[in-house]
Automatic annotation (TrEMBL), chain A:
Domain ABC transporter: 7-230
One Pfam family, short name: ABC_tran
Gene3D superfamilies reported in the protein's UniProt record: P-loop containing nucleotide triphosphate hydrolases (3.40.50.300)
Protein name listed in UniProt: Cell division transport system ATP-binding protein
TrEMBL record, chain B:
Transmembrane segments: 30-50, 176-200, 269-291
InterPro entries: FtsX
Keywords recorded for this protein, A-Z: Cell cycle, Cell division, Membrane, Transmembrane, Transmembrane helix
GO terms for biological process, alphabetical: cell division
Entry GO CC: cell division site; membrane
Protein name: Cell division transport system permease protein
Amino acid sequence: MAERGVIELDNVSHSYGGGELLSNISLTLAPGAFHFLTGPSGAGKTTFLKICYAELVPTAGAVRLFGADVRGMDRDQIARTRRRIGVVHQDCRFLDHLPVIDNIALPLLTAGQDPDDERNNIDELLGWVGLRARADALPPELSGGERQRAALARAVIMAPDVILADEPTGNIDWEMSLRILQLLVELNRMGKTILIATHDLNLIRAAKAQVAARVLRIKDRQLNLAGADL
Amino acid sequence: MSGAADALRLLRGDPRAGSVVPPSGFTARLTVFTAAAMAFLAVFALALALSAGHLADRWGDALARTATVRLSAPAGQMDTQLAAVMEVLRTTPGVATARPMTEPEQRALLEPWFGPDLPVETLPLPRMVEVTETQTGFDADALRLRLAGEAPGAVLDDHTRWRRPLVRAADRLRGLGWLSIGLIGAAMGAMITLAANSALAANAQVIEVLRLVGARDAFIARAFVRRFTRRALEGAALGTAAGMVAVALMPGGDGTGFLTGLGFRGLDWLWPLALPPLAGLVAFWATRFAAFRVLKGIT
Ligand SMILES: Nc1ncnc2c1ncn2[C@@H]1O[C@H](COP(=O)(O)OP(=O)(O)O)[C@@H](O)[C@H]1O
Ligand SMILES: [Mg+2]
């Protein structure tokens, strides 16, 4: 068998009921890799990421997460597997009635851990993303950049092996985008596997100056490695 | 069973895990009110069932194989006719014992109506003979025929004839009381299910987020179950207390009449205390059922 990936897609196709959106895609994300996923809006980047953390079961093909086939998992196994994958969702997906600090600690709580035991960790994480002063704010009170950083903090609180980020720099200024990229690069240097969906080519160029990032592109329902022009 | 384990964890409580679902003032108050009203009704159904049960038991005992023969005869014939009656009873199959009532016994019977100073001995009162049946009982019609032949002044008063329907009615009432409690419990389960479903629907986004960050179904269900169980317990405790006060304040009597006998006696008072935990149990299972059903539809 080929190299074991943390996320493996095998001839995956997906359609939302109409025509096929993704067709026969195969991919192996090796541990420690840094990937970008690009393509025009509506190409299926978000759909692809959803398949990668089992929010969506593709209409055809196999998805293996950490070596286990998603279709063979029961709901509890899927929950446990998601704890090993940190996701920055395109729309962040916070619980708006809980302050930032509780949103960041949410994965701990749902995993049955006591966030109070992890107070130092949480505080350190807040400092890392520069949100200590905003810890008690409610998510709707945050700016776009603050939201993305809070989402990133929640994505890494469980010390996951993989981080998937869906347009983590959408709708925020260039300076803040670079800061978020910096955080993701740091995570990759710690050994995390990173996959970032973005249509921002400048961001990809900025990343390539720092890490050996590979760029995947969804075009015409297919996934291809982008050329060196990127 | 995992349900029991969940119930234990629930009692231990974890307010933090509960806070992942935003508070909902209105459904909360509605659930508490429903549980209170249901528990209040259940207390009365319980009082009805228990009182009817006592009544059925007592009437049942009282008519357990007793009858009376009432003998009216001119003073001169009284003794001979009494002897004839006793002879007839002695030879009737199914009669266990027959005993003429003594004068003080007859006086005690009449006292409630005529007062203690009644000169019983001067009145032309009928003599009463107390009869008890054997297990199999006697044939009342045949006995009546024989008495009519041997002692024309004797009348067999068969208590069972008028008391049996009363016992049956009391029995039926007891059954209806328990049935009402069952129906009240089922109605409460249905209403909690509706309330839980609406809470689950209102929090669909929250549930989705929880699933996405790796929450197991049991964790999410628990947040809802904890809430509804607590509300049902609270409401039922209030309703039960109010119901018990209302029953205690019912105008009482000697307890032999039906209306004046409606209420709890002695250890009966422990029964209503079971209602709040029962309501909690109903809420626990109804919410759990609703939650897992909704969760199945969310990835
Ligand atoms: N839940 C859904 N049901 C039906 N169609 C969907 C759903 N989600 C996305 N789509 C469609 O699939 C296509 C790809 O969407 P998406 O994966 O979000 O693309 P991208 O993230 O690249 O912009 C779009 O045309 C979108 O309208
Ligand atoms: Mg998208």
